[in-house]
Amino acid sequence: MNVTDRIYVAGHKGLVGSAIMRALEQQGYSHLITRSSSELDLRDRQQVDDFFETEEIDYVFLAAAKVGGIAANNDYPADFIRDNLLIQTNVIDAAYRAKVQKLMFLGSTCIYPKYAPQPLKEEHLLTGELEPTNMPYAIAKIAGINMCQSYNRQYGTRFISVMPTNLYGPGDNFDLHTSHVLPALIRKFHEAKVQNQPVVEVWGTGNPKREFLHSDDLADACIYLMKNYEDSEIVNIGVGEDIAIKDLAGMIMEIVGYQGEISFNSSIPDGTPRKLVDVSKINALGWTAQTPLAEGLQELYRTFQTEFLVKQ
Ligand code: GDP
Known about the structure:
By secondary structure, the protein is α/β, with parallel strands linked by helices.
């Protein structure tokens, strides 16, 4: 990938896409192509075909997707499977027909079986049952991986797929109903602090464990793999360490400076018990994550204050 190549970042306003944009800009890539969802509806095949026919794109980062936390996945299962299948099918197929040099499909670690051995190795894909709370999303992503592999096999394309662990960073979603746990807890603890609430409710038992990767680290990994990885097999992107939700809540409470109590609402589902990824493959390829969680959380709290609170 040369600095003058035409690079399309699908989903450039999202957590992942915006991080990839920042990293590409910083590294001097000068032909970055973007479209907002109002300019180009990726669910519409004709629009996607027309876009690829006119833009002469060399590289694609396919980071456009309908995403959300455990509640959103539960409430909008049809939207999650339909929108994701449409977006990825349209973009992957148009990229093939427009002869792009290389495409990266962004997946998620929820593609792995609920009870797969931990840490999750790439070869655990399709070896067991999925976690029901995000199955429609996961099935769409698995279809995307297989589509990239099948196109490579049948048409000789260079489509690679990467599986990032749970992400956080600038542009994160702080809406309590649709967000993931990190931004949700930052907001809950902050609001409890300023409103002097005695208790903050954390969903589930607090026992599940999650791994969290800063979106800037992910972007760095994506560009690294776009340049250095050619295989059809998926690659995990993570930090290789996880933390129990109850310990995470303790960390966030301290960073925010909240002095009250935590109550765990175990009537709300925990989701998958653990999904730590095995990062030995990406480490062996020459990449490791850089941002420690404590540092990233402090930055996320500042993001919440500068991006979210000021807009309210
Ligand atoms: P998941 O990784 O796909 O399960 O998505 P989430 O980030 O939404 O949830 C991770 C874990 O954090 C689950 O066990 C949730 O029950 C738990 N959790 C605790 N409090 C919250 C909260 O306020 N919001 C969200 N989204 N999750 C929470």
